[in-house]
Every structure is written in structure tokens, then in C-alpha cells.
């Protein structure tokens, strides 16, 4: 699972590189991010333009209602900060978002097993995500949330992850465009994007002691 990532990003560079048209955030994406925190994400708006937004990490599907097991939204979201790429097209929590609401989450590195993993070419990581819009029945509360998609770990990350998983990293501009494309809705058309990022293009270092 991916449960911590870091971002130290310049918003201007991010907007230029990812061709973002609308910025709905304030300040630069900077700091350590954990489940249930607000994290930066890029998605398409209704006009098909890329926008930079803040989403709560832990996906809350549009159909969720309080119940005996999850009395609060956060109780549900604690279980949905990651979505397995192998089953997101089938699971009720994720399948509609997978078809219609995909996003990209920018990061500098991600944490696993006491290590920070990053790209050797110094490019920031573009993590594949899904997002959702939830509104309470009375219309008084809305939550926009997201999850990070995971895949099998590559040979570098698997050493440190007990379940041998890692986030899906979108390799380049073409991969990002395809992931965000509203025209691609079947898993088969996106499957090649959800493969482990090559280990020889990543490195790692010990995370600083807290």
C-alpha cells in the first residue's frame, strides 16, 4: 500500500509541465501527505480542461450512506486510500470512478519500509488516481476525495513492502493524457499503464528519522 508521499513542487512548473488550465489550490504543493489529508491532484473539468485541485485522500463513493459499520465518512475512507489496479473495474467502490473520474497525483517521492522512492531522472512522480464527489442527502456537506491506484511492486520496491505493492506511476505525457482521457473507459485500454514502473529508473534513500 501507498500510505505516505512527499511533495516539494513549484506550482508554476507543475502547471507548465502538465498543461494545467485552472488552478483551484493555494500555494505550492509541499509537505508530507497521509490518508485523510488534502492532497494535490490534476483532473479534467466539465470542459475537458486540466485543473489542479485539492482532494481528501481516501475515496468516498457518491452512493455512500452512514451505516452500522461505517458511521462516518472518514471511517469508510480509512479503507479506501489505495485501490488495486487488478480489481478497480469491478469493485463497487471504484468502478464508476475508474470509468469517468480518473486523476493524477503529483509527488516528489513516496515512502515505504523506511525508504523514500523517487525517479532517477529527477522528474516528479505522477501517480494514477481516481476521484469522487459525494454530497449529503440534505445538500449541506460535500466531500471531494480520491484514492491512489496500486500495482505489483517492482524489484526495487518489493524488498521493502511486505505485500509487494507500489503506486501506479504514469511514465510520461502520453501516459498522463491517456489516463485522463474520457474516451478510454475499459480496463483493457488502460491496462498497460498500470504496470510496475521500471526498477532501473528508480532509486531510494533512507527516510529521515522523525
TrEMBL record:
Family statement drawn from the similarity comment of this UniProt entry: Belongs to the SOS response-associated peptidase family.
InterPro entries listed in its UniProt record: SRAP, SRAP-like
Upper taxonomic lineage: Bacteria, Pseudomonadati, Planctomycetota, Planctomycetia, Planctomycetales
Organism from which the protein derives: Rubinisphaera italica
A Gene Ontology molecular function term of the record: single-stranded DNA binding
A Pfam family reported for this protein in Swiss-Prot or TrEMBL: SRAP
PANTHER family according to UniProt: ABASIC SITE PROCESSING PROTEIN HMCES, DC12-RELATED
Keyword Transcription (UniProt): no
Name used for this protein in its record: Abasic site processing protein
Entry's EC annotation: 3.4.-.-
Domain of life, per lineage: Bacteria
Amino acid at each position: 500500500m501507498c500510505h505516505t508521499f512527499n511533495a516539494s513542487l513549484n506550482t508554476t512548473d507543475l502547471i507548465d509541465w502538465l498543461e494545467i488550465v485552472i488552478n483551484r489550490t493555494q500555494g505550492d504543493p509541499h509537505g508530507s501527505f497521509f490518508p485523510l489529508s488534502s492532497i494535490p491532484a490534476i483532473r479534467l473539468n466539465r470542459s475537458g480542461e486540466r485543473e489542479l485541485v485539492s482532494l481528501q485522500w481516501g475515496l468516498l463513493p457518491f452512493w455512500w450512506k452512514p451505516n452500522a459499520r461505517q458511521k462516518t465518512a472518514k471511517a469508510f475512507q480509512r479503507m479506501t486510500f489505495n485501490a488495486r489496479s487488478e480489481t478497480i473495474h469491478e469493485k463497487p467502490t471504484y468502478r464508476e470512478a475508474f470509468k469517468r473520474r480518473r486523476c493524477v497525483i503529483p509527488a516528489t517521492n513516496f515512502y515505504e519500509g523506511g525508504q523514500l522512492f523517487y525517479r532517477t531522472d529527477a522528474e516528479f512522480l505522477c501517480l494514477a488516481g481516481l476521484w469522487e464527489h459525494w454530497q449529503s442527502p440534505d445538500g449541506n456537506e460535500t466531500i471531494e476525495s480520491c484514492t491512489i491506484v496500486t500495482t505489483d511492486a517492482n524489484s526495487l520496491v518489493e524488498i521493502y513492502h511486505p505485500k509487494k505493492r507500489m503506486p501506479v506511476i504514469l511514465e510520461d505525457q502520453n501516459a498522463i493524457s491517456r489516463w485522463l482521457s474520457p474516451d478510454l473507459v475499459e480496463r483493457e485500454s488502460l491496462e498497460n499503464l498500470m504496470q510496475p514502473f521500471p526498477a532501473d529508473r528508480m532509486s531510494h534513500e533512507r527516510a529521515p528519522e522523525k
